Each structure stands twice: as C-alpha cells, then as structure tokens.
Amino acid sequence: MADKRFTGVIPPVVVPLTKDRQLDVVSLDRSINRMIEAGVDGLFILGSSSEVVFSTDKRRSDIIENTVRIVDGRVPVLAGIIDTETERMIEHGKRAQDLGVDALVATCPFYALQGIDEIEWSFRCIHDAIDLPLFAYDIPVCVHNKLNTDMLIRLGKDGVLAGVKDSSGDDISFRYLVLKNEDAGHPMSILTGHEVVVDGAYLSGADGSVPGLGNVEPYGYVRQWKAAQAGDWETVKKEQDRLARIMEITSVTSGVAGFGAGVGAFKTALQLMGIFETNQMPRPVHSLKGENVEAIRRVLEANGLL
Amino acid sequence: MADKRFTGVIPPVVVPLTKDRQLDVVSLDRSINRMIEAGVDGLFILGSSSEVVFSTDKRRSDIIENTVRIVDGRVPVLAGIIDTETERMIEHGKRAQDLGVDALVATCPFYALQGIDEIEWSFRCIHDAIDLPLFAYDIPVCVHNKLNTDMLIRLGKDGVLAGVKDSSGDDISFRYLVLKNEDAGHPMSILTGHEVVVDGAYLSGADGSVPGLGNVEPYGYVRQWKAAQAGDWETVKKEQDRLARIMEITSVTSGVAGFGAGVGAFKTALQLMGIFETNQMPRPVHSLKGENVEAIRRVLEANGLL
Amino acid sequence: MADKRFTGVIPPVVVPLTKDRQLDVVSLDRSINRMIEAGVDGLFILGSSSEVVFSTDKRRSDIIENTVRIVDGRVPVLAGIIDTETERMIEHGKRAQDLGVDALVATCPFYALQGIDEIEWSFRCIHDAIDLPLFAYDIPVCVHNKLNTDMLIRLGKDGVLAGVKDSSGDDISFRYLVLKNEDAGHPMSILTGHEVVVDGAYLSGADGSVPGLGNVEPYGYVRQWKAAQAGDWETVKKEQDRLARIMEITSVTSGVAGFGAGVGAFKTALQLMGIFETNQMPRPVHSLKGENVEAIRRVLEANGLL
Amino acid sequence: MADKRFTGVIPPVVVPLTKDRQLDVVSLDRSINRMIEAGVDGLFILGSSSEVVFSTDKRRSDIIENTVRIVDGRVPVLAGIIDTETERMIEHGKRAQDLGVDALVATCPFYALQGIDEIEWSFRCIHDAIDLPLFAYDIPVCVHNKLNTDMLIRLGKDGVLAGVKDSSGDDISFRYLVLKNEDAGHPMSILTGHEVVVDGAYLSGADGSVPGLGNVEPYGYVRQWKAAQAGDWETVKKEQDRLARIMEITSVTSGVAGFGAGVGAFKTALQLMGIFETNQMPRPVHSLKGENVEAIRRVLEANGLL
User: Fold this and answer.
1) Pairwise CA distance, residues D47 & D101, whole Å
2) Is C200 in the D-facing interface, judged by CB distances under 8 Å?
3) pTM over 0.90
4) Which chain A residues are Cβ-neighbours of B176 within 8 angstroms?
5) Does domain D4-230 sit in CATH 3.20.20.70?
6) Alpha carbon distance B203, A194 (integer Å)
7) Which chain B positions have a beta carbon within 8 Å of A245's beta carbon?
C-alpha cells in the first residue's frame, strides 16, 4: 500500500529571492509556516516552482537546509533531484538525503534522446543508490517525454517508486494510472500536479495534489481535499471553480510566458499579499512589473485575497 | 442560452462497411436504433468515428441520408463538414443542410499553416453561408492547432457558434472554456469528446459528451449522464471506471495505432456483439484480425458485454 | 531509370485571383508563359502554392483545364491530388487524368492518424487506380508525417513512384534518398521543394527543383540548373545567394505567417512586377497590404526585379 | 572578423569508458592523437558526443583536464558548458576556463519554458561572466528551441558570440545565418554540426564542421575541408557521399535510438577499429552488442575502414 505520509495537499514551494537574487530566508519562513498552518499535508521543494533548474548546487542545498529546518518534522518534505541524467540525479539525491528530506522526486532523463528501457533503468538506478521513497515526476512539457503507464505500475509493484507526481496534462492516462495502481494493490501515491482540474483528479481517485497555486491560496486546496475525503463533490467543485479563477493570475499578464508567467505570477501575488518581500526572478528571467503586476492585483482583489 | 437540443450523450456514429467496403445500411440501422433505444440525446455523424476523411463526397451524402432516414427526428443529428479549408467546408455544409441535418460541426482549417485570425474568420464565413447551428470541433491531434478559448467565447457571444465539441485532451483549457461560457451567459453547449474522463468533464460543468465508445456501450453513458444531472457523483464515477475498462479495447491490440486501433476496435466490438456484420475498415487501413480480435473479445467478456 | 521529362526546374504554379476571388485566367496565362519562356522544364499545379486545399473541386478543375490549355504541351504538367485520404485522392487523380495532366503528385494521408503500412498502401492504391506517373510529396509541415526513405525506395523500385518532391526540410534524409535511389538504379526523379538550399540539393545529386520563388524569378533558377548540369558550382552558389535574398520577401512582412506570408508574398511580388492583377488570397487568408507590400517592394528593388 | 582559430574540421570528442564506466584515458589519448595527426583543426569536448549531460561535475573536469593535457596546444579546445540554466552554465564555464580550454560552447536554457528575450540575456550573462570566446550551440532536438537567426547575428555583432555550432537540421536557416553573418562583416565562425550534408554547408559558406563521425574517419573530413578551400566541389561531394555511407553505422542497428544509436555506433566502430578498448556507454544507456555490432562491422568493412 502507498505510504500514507504522501497524500493530500503537497504544494511545490515557491522560493523567495532578495533583490540581488539571494535566498530570502525570512520570506521563505513566513510562506512555509503559512502553508503548514493552513493544513497542507506535505511540501515539495526543488521542483519547477522552486526554480530547481535555475539553482546552483549550493543554492539547492540552501533551499533544502532551510526548508527542513523551518518545517521541523511537522509535515514530510519531498525534494526534487532534477537533472539531465542518472549519475547527476544520484548525486543530488545523496546530498538531499544527507540534509534530511523524506522523499525524492525524479523526472526521466532529458536533453539526450532516450527510450523507455533507459528511462526505466534510470529510476531503478536511483532507487538502488538511495534508500528513500522515490517519486516519478511526469512532466512532458519540460522533459519532452511522457512516462509510460505500464512502466510506472511495474516500478510501483517492484517497490522502486513510492508514487507519481503527474504534471502531464493528460487526464486520460492519469485515470488509467489510478485504475491500474488500484488493481495492483495501490502501491503508489498518485498525485496530480495541476491547479485547475484537481476536482476531476480526485473524482478519478487521486491520492493528493501538488498545486503551485497552493503557495498563494493553501486554504482552498485544504478545504477541497477534506471535502473530497468526505465525498462532498459539490464543495470540491465549488472550491475548484474559485481556485481556477485565482489561477488566472498566470494568464492575465502579457509579454511573458512559461516559467516567467507561472512562477512569476505566484511570486508577484505573494509579494502583493505581504508574504514575499520581492517578486524577484532568477536570471535570465525578468520579474513581472507595471501593468502585469496590476493585472494580478485585480484578480486577487476580485477573489478576496487582498 | 445554449440550445437545449444539444446536451447529454451524443455518440459519434461508427459507420459499418460490407466486406467490399460499401455502406452496410442494415448494420447502421441496427446500431443507430440501439443507441436511440438506450436513451442517447443526439447523434454526431461524419466525425472521425464516421471515417469522414476517408469518405468520398458521395459516401458522405449516403451516410447523412441514411442516418436522417433511420433517426426520423427522434434525436437531433449533427453532421461534420470536415475538410481542409473554408470554401470546401461550406460546400459540405450546404449539402448536409439539404439532406436535413440539425447542426454542423467544423474544425479549423488544416494542412495549410494559418493563424488565429484566419481560424476565426473561417468559422464566421461558414456561419454566414449556412443557416444551421454550428459547432466548433477542437481536435488538435488531427488538425495540429488548439482552438483558442477566448476566440471560442467571442464566437459564442456573437451567435456564430452554438457549441464546442472538445477532443483536445486539454482538461485545463476545457475547464476555462466552461467557466467563461458560464460567465458569458452560457451561449454555447460545451461537449467533451473523450470517453474515459467524462466524469471530470461533467463535474467541470460540461453540457454533454460525444463518446465513440457510446456506440459499443450507450447504456453506461446514458446512466452516467442521468446521475450527473442528479448530482450523484459516486455513480458518475463508478460508471466512468467501468467505461474506462471497456475502453481498453482500443489499447489491448498490437501493431496498430491511431484510427486503426480506435475505430478498428469499436467496429470489432460491434461485430463481436452482433451489431455489425463485419469490422471492415476503409482503405488504406487494415481491419483488425486474429489475436487482436481475441484481445478485444476478452475485454468485452470481462465487462459483461458478451 | 527516372523519366527524363521530370527533371530540372519545375515551379509550383501560384494561382492569380480576381478581387472577388475568381480565377484570373489572364494573369495565369501571363505568368505561365513567362516561366516557360524563361526556360523552366515543367510546371506543378495544385500544390500548396496553387492553394489546392483552399479550392473546391470545381476550382481545381478550372486550374487544371486552363493550365493544360495555356501550356499546350510545351512542358510537362504535374498535378497535385492533395486530400485527406486515398479514395478522395483517387477521385481527384481521375479527374486530373481526364483533363490531360502528365503526372500526379500525392502526399500521404493526413488528419487521421496512420502508420507507415497504411501510407505505403495508399500510394499503391493510387498507382493501381490511375495510369499516370505518380510523385510522392513529402511535406511534413502540412501532413505531420515524414515519408520513410526505405519505403520511398521500395515504391520506386516497384514502379509505383516516378519520383519524390521533397519539401521536408530534412537535408540529411534527402541525401540518403538520393544515394539510395542511385544505388537502386535511379528509378525515381528526386526533386527538392525548397527555394534557398537548392545548391546543396544539386550537389547532393537532386534531379531538379520545385521552387515557389520560381514564379517570381524563374530566370535565376534556370541559370542555376544549367550551371549545375555543367558542374559550375561557383555559379550555382552565386545564383543561390541571390535567390535567397529575393526569398526574403516571405519573411520581411509582419503579422502574417505560414501560407499567408509565403504565397501572399509571391502574389504581392507578382502584382508589383505587373504579372498578376491583384495579390488576392483565398478565404480565410487576408491579402498583404500597406507596409507589408512596401517591405516586399524594397526587397524586389534591392535585387533588381523592379 | 571571426577568429581564424575556430575554422575547419573540429570533431566533437567521443569519450571512451572502461568496462566499469571509468574514463579510459589510454583510449582517449589514442583517439585524440589520431584525429590531430589526421589534420583536424580543433576539438570540441563536452558536447553531446562527449556525453556531457551524463557526466558528473567531477567527470566533466576529468575530461577537460585530460584533453587539454593530451592536446597540449596543438589545436584549440572548445568545451561545452551544457546545463539547464544560466547560473549553472557559468559555474561550468569558470571551471573550464581554470582548466585551460580555449573557448566555451553553450546552448540556450532548457527544461523551463522560456522566450527569446531570456535566451538572449542568458548568452549575455555568460559572456559577461567569463572572458573566453563563446559559441552558441543550436540543437533544438535536445533543447526544444531553435535559436533565432537575427538574435545570433545581434550577439555576433555585439561581440558576445564568437560563433555558432549549428546542429539544428534546418539548412534554410543555416544559409541565412551564413549570409547575414557575411553582411555583418563575418564576426562569427559558423560551423555545421552535421555529418552527411557538410558539402552543402560548405557551399553555403560555412566556416567549418563539427562532425561526430570525425572521430571514426577524420581523414575524409580533413580532405573534404581542404577540397572546399580549394573550390574543388566534385571532391567535396565525393568525400561526402563516402562519409554518408560510413555514417550508416548509426542507422543499421535495431532496437536502439537517439544517443544510444549515434554515440553507441561511434564507440562501437572505434572499438572495432582498435582505437577504443570498449564500447561501454554511460548509465542508463545500454552498450551495443551482438548483431548490432556485426551490422556496424559490415558497414566499416564495406567502406575500407577495417
């Protein structure tokens, strides 16, 4: 059976920077404590929202150390070990283990073109090298490969994977992943990585969610998860509709796209709400400003967050 | 407000062929009557499931004439006018109108590379030319363009579009389409074109579904729609899980893919169930046979359909 | 051995329209005669440049009839039979044959998802149905499938294909196609469909070219082909560099893309040069105007074409 | 004007491993010396062929140190600093500079979705941070972004880029890059990263090539470059046809693809030719064996390399 520690709402932590792009530990403390007080069930650091691929190894370690210290065992901490290939991911994983995280999250290799055999072997190599629960991160928009459902189930049955964070945007394969995981005795915790269709994922049988927007509005996601647990689907849907409207902070801007629009909007909202000091982005991404900030402010106001 | 005729379960009609690839009117009659008796709310002909792009203009007209005759006004008939560009689609639309269909369904232009302005103008041209409700068919896997949500809403508000059949596989944009359609006064009927995540679409607020699998098992989709109308989400989900298992007929085969695997499986199931005489496919697609047929038979048996 | 009629410079004919989008036969006559007088070796109608997918069946026939009449046997006429699937392509092919074309050009099926077996069978069906030389048109940007080299060689050896028009943009596969065609005894005429890398294709061993820009500046392409035949590679390259600069008419515009930018620029250039009456585009494509026309004019002037 | 040091044949160095995946310095010595004795003009390490993304930071440093020592100033050494984002690339670049390389090679950022402004800023950040000639590596198949030609020219004019290694497979954009670089006073050295269409690139005006196959057969590429310098295009083409046939070692295998098929074939050929001790691949890639090795052997024999 899937590890019960890794269910429910597990936001991917957005990382605050100072104006000169240093880690802003004070804001990080404020944001993490706010999410835990709202009732989230875990935290995922060093995923896309934590700007993992922008961070040097030193910065990655700083983020882990501070998060583990701030969280102090109140909820489990999952850490991404995102890198191009297996040996590099194993190095990140060993460092994360030494720093005290509770689980690791790995994508398939990327940059070099590879096939399913190599992807499967990569997960097995990581599992063999490091004694921590391992989650597969399915994010084809970044790695340009969709993880195969039968492979994931096989790795779950073999005890290689403790779960899957699905950011594939493919709700059909997600449903089959949940169904086949159930048929296999539920060895994995299946988490959706999306913000605006969490209700459908819960109805499908997902074990939880990893919503970036959970940094901005953790309360709604916590209420939604509790309603899903209680079978109150009207509330699940109602909360979702509200969260979908808040998520428009990532699309009301203009002239930006991808990471700059998504994480940029989360940082801007957190700054407007007084949780982050700045909305500073890592190089080479420009921080949002001017009319883009105002557009985000209007969405927050319209939804009662300011 | 959206036209109430175009809500609920509206299966895309799979077209039976004789061994020598003529239209098998007897089987078509049997299948259509079975779906109507099961309680479907409409029928969509000349979409992908009706092998529209494989059909000559003559064949297209034969399919429309026979369907309109068999249906005889019991449910509305929507007809695809799929073709590469606007003028060609308008020709198909006029023929379909003359033959008595109730609504038209058009994709954006394909083959030639075009932008959003041209796509929008294309829908407007079709609407101006033909006085029938017009649905936009969003199917990027075939036309390699995702229809823009704001454009669809604009066309809905302007009375150009009566609805959208969404086969985009993008549940996030689907949710925003539903939300924004609601905000605009619900001018359009928003239908999901998928089979295995209809429950999530209904929870999102979809007005109905267009499931190819509805040819094989219309009863489940009808029960699911009624449960959704009643707010009985546990039943909606339970029916969905069963339908998802039946839908595995499209993935248990090997050596085939795409249209041949999908519509090929539907035809094979319908033949095994005694509704179609053959599982003949149009050139240049090979019909399923041997072990692939047996694999489909096993899925049907496991789910009580044989 | 490849049919010698289908070698050299074979421009895809750009089709002039009147302001109200009727076929402008007078301009067509002027343009075709100009190309033949410049020394082109053939003409390809009803490809992308001839807006084939925008044209009703009636328009397609009008284009064929007028072209065959104007050409009057001076050079071979190849006609595209572009459509979604096999049976529809065969219908176009039979009409084209009745109207007197010398060869047919077919893409693989598109819209419905298909595999290599089906693509190969489609070409064989067309060849079996119509007794005319058949060219395969490799244009993945439009049909979203790259034709497999070994399949093309097999079809060439079997006498199914008389040649290939390669608009794939994949110069590596093009080289192997030429090499393997040579190894097989040169059964096919291999033509490049590009404008600005014809020199490299000739050096690779191509049998000719099908440059849309050949409508605007046929003289350069004819000189280039003659130089290639004579082994004068410095001239081949020099002509190419000049033609590449003229081809910038398709990229100096703004706010347009794809078909509208490419064929739109050719039509605008032909109008500015007095060969076409208008630069009218088919619905739903907007004709170029204002600053975009001026930008094209400047390129033509800079290269001595005005 | 472009730095003359960075022209001609600059093979990307394939890295030999021992059976237990340690760096095989003896084989590396043998292979590098063979290439230099064949007359290559430079060496590119830590690109895809050097399995850069598979290598830990320690392994990257080992490869640089050994290469710089072996080369000993006889030809310039360019080093890849491939990583997901700017700050990480800068760290690699500083280490490479300390270890004595002559130039750096960077892709645009990957994994996180970004736009052209961010890509341009990334190159500028690297240039500002490290005082070494910087090459842009255009390899969309790995980073899923094609570098914009006008941006590259701008960076060349501004002294940010010393050149471009183009592995885009887009010969049309390559031609315009060469033409516009020429118009700008030739600030950059434009190198093609392909193996089988180097003749066309040279005819286009390329300043050199970076062929992975140059590890296996450096002599042919050196002869080809000299012929191109002399304007002897028939020899350029003849050498290319032979090299294209040798390059088939990367496609005669079955059951492998991408990196495993390409670099796997180079390693296997080098082992068969007695230059490498093993054809060991890095985890999670399987080394070629059995019939795949025999297929490569046959290609080498047929072309006089065994």
Assistant:
1) 14
2) yes
3) yes
4) 196, 244
5) yes
6) 16
7) 179
